[in-house]
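Weekly puzzle thread! Below is a chain. First person to post its structure in token form gets bragging rights.
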Amino acid sequence: MADLLEASVTLPSDPASVAAARAYAVGALVEWGLPARAEIADTVRLIVSELATNAVQHTLGQSPTFTVDLALERDELLRIGVTDSHPRFPKRLPAAVQQDNGRGMVIIRWLAAECGGRLSVRRTREGGKTVCIELPWTPGAQETPPAR
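Winning reply:
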């Protein structure tokens, strides 16, 4: 396998783009040899879904697009980044019992930690931000057993 595999897609900041972002990310992983039913594919699907949703909902119409970047380095580290042009960093909101949203970043941080990875946020040169998740990559990841 190559030392570095990369995939990137830019989508409109529209709720319909969240499903497209998920499908794109998992499709790239399958192209790179990951079984579509691997447990890590579900984790990536959820992470991309949450990050794309945040890029659409919390940029207050100030980011017309968002970009999903994937990079697999030396078959060891998977980087997932979602970039938008809004300057405000994600905020950790109190998770009130009646609250319908505000838990996405908590879920993402937990998923990353559960997999031995980490979450970071950095500014872009253009003044926006990238939320990046790094996950250890296990070649030949196990497939999820079929539901019974």
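Puzzle host: Confirmed. Bonus trivia for everyone else. The helical segments are 16-31, 39-57, 104-114.
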